Amino acid sequence: MVWFILLFAAVGIVFISSLLLLDRRVPLCYVRVHVGVMGLPAAVALAGLVFANHHVTVGLWRSDMLGWFMALFILALGWMIERFCLRYLYGDRVYRKYFTLLTFTVGIAALTWLSDDIRLLILFWGLPLLGLTKLTRLKKEWRPARMAAARMASAFSLSWLALFIAGLWLWNATGHWRLSFALSTESIRHLEWWEKTGMSMLLVLTAIVPAGQWPFQRWLLESAVTPTPVSAVMHAGLVNAGGLLLTRFAPLFNGDVSQMLLAVFASISVLVGTGISFVQVDYKRQLVASTMAQMGLMFIQCALGAYVAAVIHLVLHGMFKATLFLQSGSVVPRPNQTIRLSQSLSRTWRFTGAVVGFVAGGIVLLMSPEENAKWLSSLILGWTLAFVWERLVVFKDGRIIVLFGLVGAVFVSGTVHCGLMMLLHKAVPLSSNTSVAAEAIAVLMLAAGGLAGIWLSAHRSSELFARLYMQLVHMGEPRLESMESHPRYLADYLQKEVVNR
Question: Using one digit for the tens of pLDDT, what is the confidence trace for 271-285?
Fold first, then answer.
């Protein structure tokens, strides 16, 4: 009880502090104070993760390891992004509003996963998405920003409506507003198969829309017009919230058609997102296309019942991708910066990489016989290591150093993954309702896509390659009304300035 009070008090303090920023009488230097105060709820969430009782419910709220862990992740990531904004957004016309909306969006997103009431969950699902839309529309004088915000609003409304219907349906079928009661074994047992399938289909729709999954990826690709910190904060429990939603409602999924459809949509998203990221020349569009693909992998894990792996995936990807967005300015070429590259790739080197990937995938397959997504994990790890091994050839100098760095990165990644597995395995138990068909669909589609990519890369002069390349370019580009060769509002400002003089 005391930890909930402390967390609500800390979040309330930062909400009030963010509202003070809207008062022009408050000096601009107070923004730094506000960002410092933002660290308070993150510290409380850390203390709650360590010391709180993780098996109690208090009114509309539930204390468990997953809820506190996600609150810590979202609040800490939001605090770091706001610190970045201090200088990045300084001088912007709506500088103060950015911090107010960022605080609102992050704070509500953090509280979402501590709720144990269907009505509260529905409300909290929509509010952060509304905050993201408002953040995008702050540049309302710029037409691409308005178009992107309108696209977001329509997509997010569909997601919220689907969750609203699913929540009402679950309450009507079980008679409980409390989520833990509605999803208990006793309540689920009395549901008809078609009721569970219908609810799970609505939940799948709710989850994949904010994640920018195919065929709802357009809003995500057009979000590249948003400022870099807004793109980064999307990964603080917004685009990746679908994995958490499906984890919370895991008892409704029983290996039926909804999981197979989720595997199909997610696999298509992985292939399309990866393809777009390869052909795009705009760095931010490469990153958002990569997010589409990574969220597809997360949903494949959910479709296979590997919810612990999905949660770990969304957290690690969120931190990694938010960092890439914040460092996107570093990709601008620097003068006198050269890297010696080698273009030769021997068959022996390529064969060795394939063997390394095959052996690594086989080891994972043998060491995790009870894991829900063991075949998928083996395929992804093996293919990734083979690809990375192949890319090492471009480093003409220091190849051994890079290789040792890769081994160290694998060791650190494995250690972090095992630590998070130990932390979350009780809060997010492995689901027994696995779908063999869903895993077969995902593995076959991804394997076929990978093999097709290898064939196409070896036949770049073919008509099929050209058609596919141009189709991916087209899919990654925004609509014409969402583009401007030159921001017109800047020209309007200059014209007004001349008239005033």
Answer: 999 999 888 888 888
Look up residue 32 and give its amino acid.
Answer: R
Tokens of 478: 């925004």
Other CB atoms within a 10 A radius of the CB of residue 498 amount to: 8
Dist CA 496 CA 141 (whole Å):
14
Q: What percent of the chain has pLDDT over 70?
A: 81
Distance CA(438)–CA(460), nearest Å, equals 32
Give the separation between CA 426 and CA 414, rounded to whole angstroms: 19
Strands 56-58 and 61-63: antiparallel
Closest CA to 230 of 143, 150, 326: 326
Alpha carbon distance 205, 277 (integer Å)? 24
- Give CA–CA dist 81/99, Å, rounded: 10
Report which residue type is found at 325. Answer: F
**The pLDDT value given to residue 498:** 55
Please count the residues of the chain. Answer: 501
Find out whether 307 and 259 touch, Cβ atoms under 8 Å.
Answer: no
Q: 194 is written with which tokens?
A: 């078609």
**b/e per residue 214-224 (b: at least 16 CB within 10 A):** bebbbbbbbbb
Contact call for residues 228 and 325 (beta carbons, < 8 A)? yes
> Would you say the pTM of this structure is higher than 0.85?
yes
Q: Count the neighbouring beta carbons within 10 Å of the beta carbon of residue 247.
A: 22
The pair of three-digit structure tokens given for residue 67, joined into one six-digit string: 């809820």
Buried b (16+ CB within 10 A) or exposed e, 299-311: bbbbbbbbbbbbb
Beta strands in 47-144 (DSSP E): 56-58, 61-63
Q: Which of 169, 165, 62 is nearest to 427 (CA)?
A: 62
Query: Which among 209, 418, 203 is positioned nearest to 312, based on CA atoms?
Result: 418
User: Average pLDDT in the 17-31 region?
Assistant: 91
Cα–Cα distance measured from residue 327 to residue 336, given in angstroms and rounded to the nearest whole number: 20
Rounded mean pLDDT, 218-234: 89
pLDDT-derived band at 341, boundaries 50, 70, 90: very low
Cα within 13 Å of Cα(22), Cβ side: 9
What mean pLDDT do residues 76-101 have?
92
| 3-class DSSP assignment, residue 57 | strand
Secondary structure of residue 194 in the 3-state scheme: helix
Cα–Cα distance for residue pair 35/315, rounded to 1 Å: 22
Residue with tokens 């098996």: 55
Task: Please state whether 353 falls in left (phi above 0), alpha (psi between -120 and 50) or beta.
Answer: alpha
Beta strands in 161-296 (DSSP E): none
Q: Could you tell me the CA-to-CA distances from 45 to 36, 74, 112, 427 in Å, in that order?
A: 16, 10, 13, 16
Question: What is the chain's mean pLDDT, rounded?
Answer: 83
Q: Are 76 and 66 in contact (CB under 8 A)?
A: no
Beta partners for residue 58, in sequence order: 61
